[in-house]
Amino acid sequence: MEQIVATIENLLLEEISAISIGKLFSAVLIACAAGVLIAIVYRVTYGGVLFNKQFLLGLILMSMITSTIILAISSNLVLSLGMVGALSIVRFRNVVKDPYDLLYLFWAISTGIICGTQLFKIAFLLAAVVTVLLLFLEFVTMPKAPALLIVNSADPALEAALLSLVSRYSKKYRVKSRTLQPGGLDIIVEVRPLNEAEMIAECGKLPGVTSVTLLAHDGELRG
């Protein structure tokens, strides 16, 4: 019995020692490079209003961490079973509301898995194909970047007139926030205006409006 246990221990130690520093370094380095590419493509194709830099950094680190985990799991059977058990009890509370963000998360995780299994050619092929496809779709569709129209008014009944005016300058719009008080109304509308300056000027002419601000997706203030 002791001989069997010793044999199993020797096999496990051999599996662990099979992970060379060069193998680990190459997997993490290529996963990092692929993660940077994913982050760049995400930044270029991002069409939301409020950009999150932490999510960008998370895409890079997710590829690197996933590649390290896969490399460790593939080298040791016992460790792989323990890792699966540990990951099964993890509960992620952060809800990804945008399916587009979920696409990039899955891309980063898939790249980490591929790099962890040392299939670097597949990782390069995946990165090239997905990058070209996303950039092609971005520049073919090329919608006007959305912006947040922030209007403060002393008239609580201004909303209907404001949305009627917004519909003349933006084919699509959506009310993101509405704060109604006895002494006024604060409203935020997501718009894609064709003529920003004219829309702001017309909004400022509405009775009761105290301030109008157009917040672009890159954080630039106009108004």
Structural summary, described in words:
This protein has a five-stranded antiparallel beta sheet, with helices on one face. The protein is α+β, with helices and mostly antiparallel strands and 223 residues long. The protein has eight helices and five strands; from the N terminus they run ααααααβαββαββ. It folds into two domains: 2-141, no CATH class; 147-222, Alpha-Beta Plaits. Helix 2 runs antiparallel to helix 3 and helix 2 packs parallel to helix 6 (120-141). A hairpin with a 4-residue loop joins strand 4 (209-216) and strand 5. It has helices at 2-17, 21-45, 53-75, 77-88, 99-116, 120-141, 159-169, 196-204; strands at 147-153, 173-181, 184-191, 209-216, 221-222. The longest helix is centred in the first third of the chain and has 25 residues, at 21-45. 61% of the residues lie in helices and 15% in strands.
In short:
The protein is 61% helix and 15% strand. By secondary structure, it is α+β, with helices and mostly antiparallel strands. The longest helix is centred in the first third of the chain and has 25 residues, at 21-45.
Question: Which assembly state applies to the chains in this document?
Answer: single chain
Secondary structural class: alpha+beta
Through-space gap between termini: 80 Å
Strand order in space, largest sheet: 2-3-1-4-5
Biggest sheet descriptor? 5 strands, antiparallel
Q: How many helices in DSSP terms?
A: 8
**Helix-residue proportion:** 55-70%
Rg computed from alpha carbons, rounded to a whole number of angstroms:
26 Å
For the record, the count of structural domains works out to 2
